[in-house]
Amino acid sequence: MTTANRHTFASRLGLVLATAGSAVGLGNIWRFPYEVGANGGAVFLLVYIVCIVVLGLPAMLCEFVVGRHAQANASRAYGKGVWKATGVMAVLTGFLIMGFYSVVAGWILQYTYASLMGQL
Fold first, then answer.
1. How confident is the model at residue 114 (pLDDT cuts 50, 70, 90)?
2. Which helix or strand (DSSP H or E) is residue 102 part of?
């Protein structure tokens, strides 16, 4: 696909929502309430927000810069020279995360079945 016919976001809002959706992830929906309750409530939430701002925001901005400059996916953006291993790890990370999501989906199906059968 050439640069002329690449798909782009129609608005900045769409870009922000897509980024937020992928950044939030299943862990923040599934495990986050438990972690907040088990580790101090509001104090844990403050530490969590600081970590997101200090670590997550710069990493996301770096990914935006690399993607915009390379006009390519992670594998192609990092596909040359000493950065090739980084591109391979980025793609591998996606596969590993999907493996985790399939396990969580299995748990959801098992608990749904148990709930419907009155076995909880």
1. very high
2. helix 84-116
